[in-house]
Amino acid sequence: MEKKREEGRVRVCELVSQPILLELFSMICLTGDVHQRSYRGTDTPFSPFSEVELTIKYAKIAARYGIRITLFLTGKACLEEPNDVRNIAQMPHCEIGGHTFAAFRDPWSRIYRKLFRTPWGNESHQARDIVKTIETIHSVTGHRISAWRNHSYLQTVESPRLLEAAGIQWVSDDVNPTKRSWEPLSGNLGSLPINVQPDHEHLLHGKYQIGKSKSSKLVGRVSISEWVEQVKGEVQVIIDDGGLATILAHPLCMEVADGMVAFEDLCRFLQPFPNCWVSGVNP
Ligand SMILES: [Zn+2]
Ligand SMILES: [Zn+2]
Questions:
Q1: CA–CA distance, 71 with 69 (Å, rounded to integer)
Q2: Are 78 and 85 in contact (CB under 8 A)?
Q3: What is the reported pLDDT for 193?
Q4: Among 23, 152, 246, 282, which one has the highest count of C-beta atoms within 10 angstroms of its own C-beta?
Q5: What is the rounded average pLDDT for all residues in the chain?
Q6: Where are the domains of the chain?
Q7: Separation of 82 CA from ligand 1 center, angstroms?
Q8: What is the whole-number distance in angstroms between the Cα of residue 99 and the centre of ligand 1?
Q9: CA distance linking residue 190 with residue 181, whole number of Å
Q10: How far is the CA of 3 from the centre of ligand 2 (A)?
C-alpha cells in the first residue's frame, strides 16, 4: 500500500510544487457507515447479519485489494458488539470514525424530533452526543477518532464548531459531485465532500425494488451493476481531474444489493489508485 502512495506522490510532484497538496491529487477514499445491531432501518430486514458483522466481510474484501477504508460507527454499535468492533479497529487498513451515538434512535433525539422536527434539537444535546460517541469509541477500541460523518448527513449550523471543539478534524457530510477536493470549514476542521453518488439513495435494493415500492420512490435508482459502473466512471473522471474521489458504500447496502459481489468488483477497479483514510487527507 505504501508503495502505491509513493507512486501517487511522485506523479503529483511532477504536477504541482506545493507539498500541501500532495495527498489530495488523484486519490480515492472509500468510506462506509455502520449502525448498531438494534437499529431498524429500511435495509435491516433484508440481512440476518448485523452491520458490524457485515463490516468484517466488507473489510476483508477491501484488504484483498490493498484499500484503506474509513468506517463511521455509531457509539452504540461499539457497545452492542464490542469484540467485533475491536477486531475491526485492529485491522491495519481500517480507520474508525464517528456516526453519532445512536443514529438518532436515542430517547432525546426522538423527543427533539417531535418538538423541533430535527433530532439534534438544542446545541447541548448535539454536543453531548458527539462527546459520548467519541468517548465510547475510545473506550471500546482504544482509538481517539478524528473523522466524523453525521447520520443522514444531518448537520446544523453549530455542528462544525461542536465537532471541532470535541477534537474532530474531518467531517464528511457534504454530498456534492461537483467538488474535487477537501475544503476548510472552521479552524482545524476540514470537510471531505462525498463526490461520488452514494449507494443507499441510488440503488435498487432491499425494499426499493420495482414492484415492491411506489414508482415515485424509485426515481433515480439503478441496479447494483449499473450503480457500480456509474461509480467507476465518476471515480475515473475525478482521478483524471487530479482530484480526491470520496466514495460512500455501506456494508449493509452492498450485502443486501448482491452479497457484496459488486463491492468486490469496485475494489478491484479501485486497486490501482492511491488511497487514503479520511484522516489521511493532510492539509
Ligand atoms: Zn447512518
Ligand atoms: Zn441501503
A1: 6
A2: yes
A3: 97
A4: 246
A5: 91
A6: 2-18+25-174+182-277
A7: 19
A8: 7
A9: 10
A10: 34
Rounded distance from Cα 216 to ligand 1 centre (Å): 23
Q: Which residue in this structure is represented by grid cell 452526543?
A: 129
* Closest ligand (CA of 206): 2
Rg of the Cα atoms in the chain: 18
C-alpha cell at 129: 452526543
Instruction: Give the pLDDT of residue 2.
Output: 38
pLDDT in tens, 68-102: 999 999 999 999 999 999 999 999 999 999 999 99
- Whether the CB-CB separation of 191 and 185 falls below 8 Å is answered with yes
The alpha carbon of 9 and the centre of ligand 1 are apart by a number of angstroms equal to 33
35 CA distance to ligand 1 middle (Å): 6
CA of 72, nearest ligand number = 1
Burial of 211 (0-12, 13-18, 19+ CB in 10 A): exposed
How many Å lie between the centroid of ligand 2 and the Cα of residue 223? 12
All residues with CB under 5 Å from ion ligand 2: 43, 200, 253
Instruction: For Cα atoms 59, 63, 67, give the angle at the middle one, nearest 5 degrees.
Output: 100
What pTM did the predictor assign? Answer: 0.91
User: What's the grid cell of residue 225?
Assistant: 451493476
Residue 44 to residue 50: CA distance in whole angstroms: 8
Is 171 in contact with 99 (CB distance < 8 Å)? no
98 beta partners: 73, 148
